[in-house]
């Protein structure tokens, strides 16, 4: 029986296998190279992914066993331990922690994937396995790009992850966007995305959100869906912008980059 969780779990597996193949060959100098995350070296991205895998696994284990909920300081203790590691330990720790998380997701049968509810700690109520896996995939796929682009300037977000990230990214915009960069301007753009094809609206004002296509848009953004995901998360710098990205209307692509500075 197919479930809502199957695709994101499969994408987490393929993403892990691809990134792990790269990470296993990285030496000490490689690990301190700049990544696609402007404030982090490659090893720091791996630390973030590894600590996140550990936290996700702990939350999933609590849900599976009915154990005591994680205390409010659990995440801080995990982050502090990973922050204290050396770059090679970040790489080795990532490989092990993320493997364990993916294998735990894969071990869940269809009934558990449908019925289990997981408290992620930052949402108002527990979520199903598919939603939890998509949140993890959003984090993983973007930071996988951060690592890979440090060695390949033409890297893209994994194709199998892109369609699965479109729904979570809409919820993320309200948290990561900086509408104050528009100095009070209110703009409604039509989004024309491809691969996969999507027609949406992007409302920029006091809040930034995805909407239905506006009847009378102020302008239009045309882009591959993969490029839009990177734009929305601060990963579409000029040197990493593919052909086919165009913006018309009152805003430029540079204006949009300021609205979406990344995380």
Entry keywords:
263 residues, alpha+beta, Four Helix Bundle (Hemerythrin (Met), subunit A), Nonspecific Lipid-transfer Protein, Chain A, 2 domains, 5-stranded mixed sheet, two-stranded antiparallel ribbon, 7 strands, DinB/YfiT-like, Maleylpyruvate isomerase family mycothiol-dependent enzyme, Maleyloyr_isom, isomerase
Characterise this structure.
The chain has 263 residues and is an alpha+beta fold. It has two domains: 6-156, Four Helix Bundle (Hemerythrin (Met), subunit A), CATH 1.20.120.450; 164-259, SCP2 sterol-binding domain (Nonspecific Lipid-transfer Protein, Chain A). 51% of the residues lie in helices and 12% in strands. It is built from ten helices and seven strands. It has helices at residues 6-23, 28-31, 42-65, 74-83, 87-106, 110-115, 129-149, 162-176, 225-232, 253-259, and strands spanning 117-118, 127-128, 187-194, 198-204, 208-211, 219-224, 246-248. Strands 5-4-3-6-7 form a five-stranded mixed sheet. Strands 1-2 form a two-stranded antiparallel sheet. A hairpin with a 3-residue loop joins strand 4 and strand 5. Helix 1 (6-23) runs antiparallel to helix 5 (87-106). The two termini are 37 Å apart.
The mean pLDDT is 95
CATH architecture of the largest domain: Up-down Bundle
Tell how many strands the DSSP assignment holds. Answer: 7
Q: pLDDT below 50 for ≥5 consecutive residues: which ranges?
A: none
- CATH class descriptor of the largest domain: Mainly Alpha
Distance between the termini: 37 Å
Sheet bearing the most strands, described?
Answer: 5 strands, mixed
Helix content: 40-55%
Going by helix content, strand content and strand pairing, the class is: alpha+beta
| Helix segment tally | 10
């Amino acid at each position: 029986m197919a479930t809502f969780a199957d695709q994101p779990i499969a994408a987490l597996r393929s993403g892990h296998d691809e990134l792990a193949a790269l990470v296993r060959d990285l030496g000490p100098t490689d690990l301190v190279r700049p990544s696609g995350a402007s404030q982090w070296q490659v090893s720091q991205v791996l630390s973030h992914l590894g600590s996140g895998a550990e936290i996700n696994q702990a939350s999933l284990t609590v849900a599976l066993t009915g154990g005591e909920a994680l205390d409010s300081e659990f995440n801080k203790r995990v982050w502090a331990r990973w922050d204290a590691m050396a770059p090679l330990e970040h790489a080795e720790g990532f490989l092990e922690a993320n493997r364990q998380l993916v294998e735990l997701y894969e071990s869940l049968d269809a009934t558990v994937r449908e019925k289990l509810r997981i408290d992620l700690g930052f949402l108002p109520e527990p979520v199903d396995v598919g939603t939890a896996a998509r949140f993890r995939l959003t984090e993983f796929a973007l930071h996988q790009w951060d690592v890979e682009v440090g060695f390949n300037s033409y890297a893209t977000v994994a194709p199998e992850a892109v369609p699965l990230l479109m729904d979570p990214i809409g919820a993320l915009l309200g948290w990561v966007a900086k509408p104050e960069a528009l100095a009070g301007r209110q703009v409604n753009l039509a989004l024309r995305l491809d691969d996969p094809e999507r027609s949406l609206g992007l409302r920029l004002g006091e809040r930034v959100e995805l909407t239905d296509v506006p009847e009378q848009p102020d302008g239009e953004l045309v882009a591959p869906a993969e490029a839009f995901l990177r734009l929305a998360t601060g990963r579409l710098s000029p040197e990493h912008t593919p052909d086919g990205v165009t913006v018309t209307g009152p805003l430029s692509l540079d204006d949009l980059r300021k609205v979406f500075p990344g995380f």
